[in-house]
DNA sequence: GTCTATAAATTGATAGAC
DNA sequence: GTCTATCAATTTATAGAC
């Protein structure tokens, strides 16, 4: 079997868009073929089944969704600098890949048993975060807080606007996409300062 | 045409579960019939098509998702009491209907053009919120903040744990459902105080 | 009203020509 | 490698008996 690299890449790109937009159940092989500018038969020649193609796409999506970002909590900067850095890097990733959070959330909700393992395989380690927060509490730099609630707060603030883009746009921005983009841009600073104000003594 | 009320209610209940669990594209009429303890033919006798059934279910879901809750911002309690009350009521709704946020988010992401209008028809009015925040800023009760960012922060903190339950459970709670339930219970107070600390002068 | 049987439509996948 | 044509499986929807 021989493959044309250009064609195989066109397919992956098309599949990415189709799956992210419609989810596994809503995606159509015909639509992927159309987007790639080929026909279904050729699509199956390159990727044997819808499932095989989906596995490739979603595994790639997971590595983007769970970046090696907890490492900033290893550095010995003070807790506020660390949080600013974390939020900044974290939101930046989703600005670059805005449809990943909704895609992952949908698929994992529809099929938790088959997909949760991918959350671990990417090796997100929350221990460093927890420890750094506990240390900051001990040293009275921040208020006494449940580190897990705090982590959940941070992730909520960073991820939600991407997971629920149409809802946010429609509900608080009069359906204006321009306003949404502006809001997101300003968000890195907003979120970091909001968190820091909430926890500092 | 004559209908048995008990049967029609059994169907609606079954359809609710099936649609919420699998989404429109993943739901199967056969599965709904099975859950309701009837067969497909009878299901179609009561509800002409999958689409008709889905419309009923999702419209009901929207009215739960967007409750008449902004009214608390009309009351003349101080801003902190109001926020506490809002968060408390808001989270309570999703504790009672834990699968609604993920369901609505998924469907609206998959089909924004056909569904966003339902966000408005339920009449969530953010004006009262914005005004109350602006007043509190004027009177120097809270820091100078963009009211829309603040509203987004509040909604993010309340909704995200329900939209992304399996992710939260797996990523920060070692996959323990008990820990998740405990976390959610403690969350009403946590979120309210987090927000207040973030904005108070 | 409720059922069994079957039609009709959709969609993933394959055969075979070029 | 890429195509047209077709199959096979799944799933929504209907016909008709009781």
Largest sheet data of chain A:
none
Q: What is the oligomeric state here?
A: homodimer
Cα separation of the termini of chain A = 65 Å
Instruction: Identify the biggest protein-protein contact and residues per side.
Output: A-B, 52 and 51 residues
Strand content of chain A: under 5%
Number of helices of chain A: 11
What does it look like?
- Chain A has about 200 residues and is an all-alpha fold.
- Chain A has two domains: about 1-50, Homeodomain-like (Arc Repressor Mutant, subunit A); about 55-200, Tetracycline Repressor, domain 2 (Orthogonal Bundle), CATH 1.10.357.
- Chain A is built from eleven helices and no strands.
- Chain A has helices at about 5-25, 30-35, 40-45, 50-65, 80-95, 100-110, 110-120, 125-140, 145-165, 165-170, 175-200.
- The first copy, chain A, is elongated.
- The model of chain A has no long low-confidence stretch (mean pLDDT about 95).
- The interface between A and B is large, with 52 and 51 residues.
- The first copy, chain A, binds a DNA duplex (18 and 18 nucleotides) through helix 3.
Write the layout of secondary structure elements.
The structure is a homodimer of 201-residue chains.
Chain A: H1 5-26, H2 29-36, H3 40-46, H4 50-65, H5 79-96, H6 100-110, H7 112-121, H8 127-138, H9 147-163, H10 165-172, H11 177-199
The structure holds a DNA duplex (18 and 18 nucleotides).
């Amino acid at each position: 079997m021989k493959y044309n690299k250009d064609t195989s890449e066109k397919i992956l790109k098309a599949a990415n868009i189709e799956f992210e937009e419609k989810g596994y159940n809503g995606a159509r092989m015909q639509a992927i073929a159309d987007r790639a500018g080929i026909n279904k038969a050729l699509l199956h020649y390159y990727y044997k089944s819808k499932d095989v193609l989906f596995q490739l796409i979603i595994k790639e999506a997971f590595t983007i969704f769970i970046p090696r970002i907890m490492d900033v909590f290893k550095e010995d900067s003070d807790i506020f600098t660390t949080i600013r850095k974390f939020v900044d890097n974290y939101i930046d990733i989703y600005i670059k890949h805005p449809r990943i959070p909704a895609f992952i959330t949908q698929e994992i909700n529809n099929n938790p048993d088959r997909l949760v393992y991918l959350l671990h395989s990417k090796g997100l380690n929350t221990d460093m975060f927890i420890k750094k927060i506990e240390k900051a509490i001990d040293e009275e730099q921040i208020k006494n807080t449940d580190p897990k609630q705090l982590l959940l707060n941070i992730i909520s603030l960073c991820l939600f606007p991407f997971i629920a883009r149409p809802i946010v746009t429609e509900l608080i921005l009069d359906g204006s996409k321009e306003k949404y983009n502006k809001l997101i841009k300003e968000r890195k600073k907003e979120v970091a300062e909001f968190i820091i104000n909430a926890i500092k003594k």
